[in-house]
Amino acid sequence: MREALRRIIGGVERALTAMAASIMGLLSLVVCWQVFARYVLQRSPIWVEEFSVTAIMWIGLLGAASAVWTGDHMRLELVSKKLPKAGGLFLEILIDSAIGYFAFFLLRHGLVLTQAMWDSQMSTIKLPLGITYLVLPIAAVFMIIFAALRVVGKIIEASSTAKGARNGR
After folding, report:
1. Annotated domain spans of the chain
2. What is the pTM of this model?
3. Which stretch of 26-40, 87-101, 108-122, 138-152 has the lowest confidence by average pLDDT?
4. Tens of pLDDT, residues 61-111
5. How many Cα atoms occupy the beta-carbon half-sphere of 75 within 13 Å?
6. Which one, 44, 58, 91, 147, has the greatest CB density within 10 A?
7. 137 CA to centre of own chain
8. SS3 sequence, the chain?
9. Residue 3 in contact with residue 129, Cβ under 8 Å?
């Protein structure tokens, strides 16, 4: 059961990473088009800046959510590797818990910001401005789920390590 859940969550993480990579590829094409249009055609598309800002937010936050599951986010790895195994495990649990807490903050305030901006329109792209900020609550939900699953996994690992130590393994 645990392995099946790990595979499912791994698939979700890869889908988030693929989505961020796709947006990054599209952003690269759009920026190249903008440079070509400005310097060769002498006509720069005005919508590229708004699209770029929105795309960068989506890339960064979806990538950050993915990094929570893979453990590739910023953390005190140097410190946790120097600690005894139990201390390192405790620090990892603490770090993942802090990420979950931050993600909850991001979810709450991201929802407020998205709702507040949904009725406003982007000036050059006729879409709601809230689309730019919609990634905040979406990424936060994934971060909370990933952080919670990592904490539970670490607690299970710590309890099995403690049980093995008691049994003389």
Report:
1. 2-166
2. 0.84
3. 87-101
4. 999 999 998 877 666 666 667 777 777 788 888 889 999 999 999 999 999
5. 22
6. 147
7. 10
8. CHHHHHHHHHHHHHHHHHHHHHHHHHHHHHHHHHHHHHHCCCCCCCCHHHHHHHHHHHHHHHHHHHHHHHCCCCCCHHHHHHCCHHHHHHHHHHHHHHHHHHHHHHHHHHHHHHHHHCCCECCCCCCECHHHHCHHHHHHHHHHHHHHHHHHHHHHHHHHHHHHHHCCC
9. no
Q: How does DSSP classify residue 40?
A: T
Residue 70 identity: T
Query: Average pLDDT in the 135-162 region?
Result: 88
Encoding tokens for residue 74?
């910023």
